[in-house]
Amino acid sequence: MTEKPPIFRGVINQFPRAMEAIAKVSLFGANKYNNGDIRFDHSKSPHHIDSELRHAISIAKGEEYDEESGEPHRAHKAWRACADLELWLIKKENEI
């Protein structure tokens, strides 16, 4: 694929509520684990698939919101899926 992907039109504009929910989870994590620094620290909590599945299990049990953050489990799950994908893509870039 040589065409640049439409990040705003293709993702953010299609899922604005989801992106905002993920950003809230990101801010919560930054405040809890990284002294408010919003940048993704790749060295912290590398177990994204395990955490994503933990949130999926909570959803399956009928729990809508994470008790600690107050944010939806689905937003936590989505953040973890994004983190896992980001790290995988970085790994693939480094293999080239």
Provide a descriptive summary of the structure in words.
The longest helix has 23 residues, at 73-95. The two termini are 17 Å apart. It is built from 4 helices and no strands. The protein is mainly alpha-helical and 96 residues long. The protein has a domain at 24-32 and 46-96. The mean pLDDT is 92. The protein has helices at residues 7-12, 16-33, 48-60, 73-95. α2 (16-33) packs across α4 (73-95) and α3 runs antiparallel to α4 (73-95).
Order of helices and strands: HHHH
Number of helices: 4
Q: Can you summarize the main beta sheet?
A: none
Point out poorly predicted stretches.
none
Rounded to the nearest angstrom, the radius of gyration is 15 Å
| Termini separation | 17 Å
Roughly what is the average pLDDT, rounded to an integer? Answer: 92
Number of DSSP strand runs: 0
Tell me the structural class.
mainly alpha
Q: How large a portion of the residues is in β-strands, by DSSP E?
A: under 5%
3D shape: globular
Helix content: 55-70%
Short summary of the structure?
The protein has 96 residues and is mainly α. It has helices spanning 7-12, 16-33, 48-60, 73-95. It has a domain at 24-32 and 46-96.
List keywords for this structure.
single chain; 96 residues; mainly alpha; 62% helix
Which secondary structure elements does this structure contain, and how are they paired or packed?
Elements lengths: L6 H6 L3 H18 L14 H13 L12 H23 L1
